[in-house]
Each structure stands twice: as structure tokens, then as C-alpha cells.
Design the sequence.
């Protein structure tokens, strides 16, 4: 099928920042004969925990969801199952290769882009390695639509829209519940638009990169498939939470995630630092897998709404065309509204033993206080009675024991009643 000539629809990692440096002495992954023209070599492992995993802390959500039972389709350059973080049996499904054809699986990768994306979504933990995916128990369905992102001269390689459309439909028909599209372009191709609508109509959470073509903030470029209805578009932020200068701006940016110099797995083995909205997207895709596993009753639209509603605040404020709803928050996306702990046990009531000695002492004190009170009243009463008796005797002696008489009341003075009417103003 002819490739697109006038409009670009490219994997986001096509920017020159995604040039993986080779490390010597490591064998290349075995790929089907003739499938890769010049496969990128393996890399050395990086032990340090990357900043993106520290910022998002997906491990906090793992007691409640690890993405188990959710199939995530990665429509990309394939996924190399030789990498140790993908070797767990059943973790990566066979998938399909839409590039070389001949009914090949999607379990190989020539340039590490798809492997990097899939590792951010669901890469297993390894002893001594800080990097791991967001939803390690999710299963990856690799759907290969491109061999590599850059040509021999560093030019962007274009992908057939029909190939992408066919790959999306295949992923949906294979039971994918979440679809990662780390690709973007400014042209609206019917083959891709219809395929995305096919996925959305079948309750698939579709997550797509916003794109890396932004030159300045004065214009808003279109972006597809992020701009299609029902798709969650993802922008890129750096370690400081600031939008990457080339991360596209527009109403299709639903949320942002780390994408500036984030760590990811490479083909065969090892890790590399990568950059672009291509790699911000799988952080959100992995979160969607966590939510689908924890809340299986939610529709795809409700999963997207939940991810946006639980996002952490970003610099642009809520609803910004640069930052969307904010920074993806895996823990809150899973646990908000969830009873995350067992109910506290009510302690058994055990009454304290009776201290009879203390009770007897308290009764004795109470009796003493009561007796003292009554005795005090009796003494005071006796004193008052004695005083009154002495006063009465003295008064009686002075009068010779004659009864006293009350003084006569004065005669009531005559009252001069006023006349019935008093005229202060003479009659006319």
C-alpha cells in the first residue's frame, strides 16, 4: 500500500531527541529474517529509580490494582519480548505485524520505540532496577505498524493511515480493553478516524499522544487521533511539571504526564532516556489499565472521566489547553471512592476490677463530711438561739417585764378632691 506523501502521521518518537545510543558488547535480539534492516542494539541497564516513577508513585495503587486481567494494545513498532521485564509467561501476547506481513507476530522490535512504550505501561519489576511499568499485571498486545521512526538520513518516516486503521480494528477484535496510540499528525484520515470510532463504540479506552509539533504558544495545531471523539489526548511535562516546549496545545489535550527525559526499556535489554508525548502517553494508558481492573463496571468514557477528575493540579489550571485536567495520578484514579482499608475492630469491653478499699475509703470520707456539716449547723443554731435569748432577757428587764405597745397610727389627712372639671382656658 502506498505511503502517505503529503501529510505526516508519524510515531511521536520521530523527533530527533529519540536517538538511542548503542552500548557495545551486547547481542542483538533475534528477529524474523529480513524484518529489520538495521536493528538498534541493546543498552546497558540503569538501576536508579527514574523521576517519573517517583513523581507518580504508581506502587501506592498496587495493593488495590495492578492491572490484572486487562489487555492493553500497543500500536507501534512492536515489543521485544527478549527484554527481562517482559519475559514473564503470558505477559506479552503474540499480536501481529502489519509491516512485514507473512502472518508474523508483533513480538519483535527494530528500534525500541514500541518496547519503550510498552515498558512504561506494564514492565515488570526487576531486583536492583528502579524502573518498572505503571500496571505490571496488565497484558500487552503488540501490533506492529512501523519498522522504525527515522530513516537513514534522520528524516521522518511516514506510516500508511490504512495500516494504522487496520491495526486498531485488529486490536479491538482481539479483546483489547485499552489502546495506546503513541502517534500523531495534523491530517484527519478517514481510515484512522473510522477505526478509532470502531474502538470507542466497543467500549475501548483510547489514549493518544498530543504531538510534538508545537513551535510557540500563539497557535493551536490540530492533532489526530488525539482530537477524535472519545479519545484521551496526552501532553508532556518535564521534571518540574512544566509543559515541554514542543508538546502541542489544543482542546484535545485531556491530561498531561511525564515525558521529558523519562526512562524506558530498550529492545533486548537495558534502558534509555527518551523524550516526547509518545512516552507521556503510556503513563496514562497504564493508569487506565489500573482503573479498568479496579472498577470493571465503568465504561470507557467513565474511565477517562475518572482519570481526568482525579488528576493532580497542573500549572495551567483545570481545563487548560496546555495541561488539560492536570497531571495524571494513578493512586487517586484507582482509590478515590474506594474503601481502601478493613474496618477497625471494636475493642472488647472489659470493666476494671472493683477496688473495694477505695470505695470504703470514699464512703468514710463522705460520712465524715456529712457529720461535720450537720455538727457545724447544730453549733451555729445553738449560738444564734443563745444570742436571741440574751437579747430578749435584757429587753424584758428594762421594761420590768411589761408588754410593749405599738405606737398609735397617725390620723389620715383629709384629701381635697379636685372638681370634676377644671377649665384652664376661659370659655369664649
Sequence:
Amino acid at each position: 500500500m502506498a505511503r502517505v506523501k503529503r501529510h505526516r502521521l508519524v510515531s511521536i518518537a520521530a523527533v530527533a531527541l529519540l536517538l538511542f545510543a548503542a552500548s557495545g558488547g551486547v547481542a542483538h535480539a533475534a528477529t524474523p529474517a529480513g524484518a529489520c534492516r538495521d536493528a538498534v542494539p541493546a543498552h546497558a541497564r540503569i538501576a536508579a529509580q527514574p523521576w517519573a516513577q517517583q513523581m507518580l508513585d504508581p506502587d501506592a495503587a498496587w495493593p488495590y490494582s495492578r492491572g490484572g486481567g486487562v489487555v492493553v494494545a500497543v500500536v507501534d513498532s512492536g515489543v521485544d519480548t527478549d527484554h527481562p521485564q517482559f519475559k514473564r509467561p503470558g505477559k506479552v501476547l503474540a499480536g501481529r505485524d502489519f509491516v512485514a506481513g507473512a502472518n508474523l507476530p508483533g513480538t519483535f522490535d527494530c528500534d525500541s520505540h514500541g518496547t519503550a512504550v510498552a515498558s512504561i505501561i506494564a514492565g515488570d519489576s526487576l531486583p536492583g532496577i528502579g524502573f518498572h511499568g505503571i500496571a505490571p499485571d496488565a497484558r500487552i498486545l503488540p501490533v506492529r505498524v512501523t519498522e522504525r521512526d527515522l530513516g537513514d538520513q534522520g528524516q521522518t518516516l511516514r506510516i500508511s493511515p490504512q495500516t494504522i486503521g487496520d491495526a486498531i480494528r485488529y486490536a479491538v477484535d482481539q479483546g483489547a480493553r485499552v489502546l495506546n496510540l503513541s502517534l500523531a499528525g495534523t491530517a484527519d484520515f478517514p481510515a484512522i478516524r473510522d477505526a478509532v470510532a470502531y474502538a470507542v463504540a466497543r467500549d475501548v479506552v483510547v489514549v493518544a499522544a498530543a504531538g510534538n509539533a508545537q513551535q510557540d504558544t500563539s497557535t493551536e495545531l490540530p492533532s489526530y487521533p488525539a482530537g477524535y471523539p472519545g479519545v484521551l489526548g496526552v501532553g508532556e511535562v518535564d521534571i518540574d511539571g512544566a509543559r515541554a516546549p514542543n508538546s502541542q496545545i489544543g482542546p484535545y489535550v485531556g491530561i498531561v504526564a511525564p515525558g521529558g527525559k523519562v526512562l524506558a526499556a530498550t529492545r533486548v535489554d537495558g534502558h534509555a532516556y527518551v523524550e516526547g508525548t509518545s512516552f507521556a502517553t503510556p503513563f496514562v494508558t497504564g493508569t487506565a489499565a489500573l482503573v479498568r481492573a479496579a472498577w470493571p463496571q465503568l465504561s470507557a468514557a467513565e474511565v477517562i472521566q475518572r482519570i481526568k477528575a482525579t488528576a493532580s493540579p497542573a500549572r495551567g489550571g483545570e481545563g487548560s489547553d496546555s495541561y488539560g485536567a492536570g497531571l495524571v495520578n494513578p493512586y487517586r484514579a484507582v482509590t478515590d471512592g474506594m474503601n481502601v482499608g478493613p474496618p477497625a475492630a471494636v475493642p472488647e469491653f472489659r470493666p476494671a476490677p472493683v477496688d473495694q478499699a477505695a470505695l470504703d475509703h470514699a464512703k468514710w470520707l463522705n460520712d465524715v463530711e456529712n457529720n461535720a456539716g450537720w455538727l457545724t449547723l447544730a453549733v451555729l443554731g445553738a449560738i444564734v438561739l443563745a444570742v436571741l435569748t440574751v437579747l430578749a432577757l435584757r429587753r424584758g428587764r428594762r421594761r420590768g417585764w411589761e408588754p410593749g405597745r405599738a405606737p398609735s397610727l397617725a390620723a389620715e389627712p383629709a384629701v381635697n378632691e379636685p372638681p370634676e372639671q377644671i377649665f384652664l382656658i376661659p370659655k369664649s
Remarks:
- The chain is about 30% helix and 10% strand.
- Residues 1-29, 150-156 have pLDDT under 50 and may be disordered.
- The CA atoms of residues 237 and 243 lie 4 Å apart.
- The longest helix spans residues 356-398.
